[in-house]
Amino acid sequence: MDTNTKIKLLKKLIDKSEMVKVEDSSDPNFKNWKNLVERTLVKVFGKKSTEYEHFGELEFYFPAMVFTSTSDYTSDHLSCFRRDFKILIDSINEYIDEFNEEVGSTYMTNVDDEKASNISKIFISHASKDSEIVEEVIEILETIGVESNQIFCTSFDGYGIGLGENFLDTIKSELSCDSLVLFVLSENFYKSPVCMCEMGASWVLSKEHIPIVVPPFSYEDIKGVFPLTQGFKLTDPLKLNSFKAKIEEVFKIDKPLSFSTWERKRDRICGRLGKLVK
């Protein structure tokens, strides 16, 4: 079963959870949904998986040791149901996120070798309102070893359009050359007409591209031409490691930073990004 099919099955569980209206483990709708969850987890992960094992540990009711005719555990049952139901929903959403990230990593490592060998520049497509975030993206690229003259970014002098040059003609020219396009995706991006044009042009020209998701924007918010080519979350250190490896490969960085040096610089940048996205 491919990863996209797994994502689809897990998302179906989230959608079907809406039919659970009564917070009671004996409710027929809940039982039907719970059975669907069990069958799906077996399909996706297998019956001996940790994910299925964690599901089996959820009880959705208060396991009292002794029941008597005067016992009333109504509030305890409700509390346990709500706790375990939330745990299960959160877990399913985490599985979906992990698979989405897996798709993103696979995409980044499957850039066509022949096309990659011709790439000599990076075009950063972004909203002008995200310039502070994009400045950190440039910092990441230069830390990896990309030269400043290999980066095209309209928000900063020395990286974009020179004095007297035509704005649209320059962008068209840059998109037409052998560039790897980085889309810095945010709410601002989707509100920008220029960004929408760059997205369409990149798709028409079949340019290699990597979507970069800026929190609180998420994979589910991605629209347009990106649904099946997920990228990575900008603040995810592990995905930044994969991004570093891809950029080093594409641009043939012959003297890459040692991992300890990269890790220190990466964490500093992530710290600044964390403050910006808040």
UniProtKB/TrEMBL annotation:
* SUPFAM superfamilies registered for this protein in UniProt: Toll/Interleukin receptor TIR domain (SSF52200)
Q: What GO biological process terms are annotated to this protein in UniProt?
A: signal transduction
Which protein is depicted? Answer: TIR domain-containing protein
Domain TIR positions:
118-251
- InterPro entries, per this entry? TIR_dom (IPR000157), Toll_tir_struct_dom_sf (IPR035897)
Pfam families given for it? TIR_2
Organism (species): Anaeromicrobium sediminis
User: What domain of life is recorded for the organism?
Assistant: Bacteria
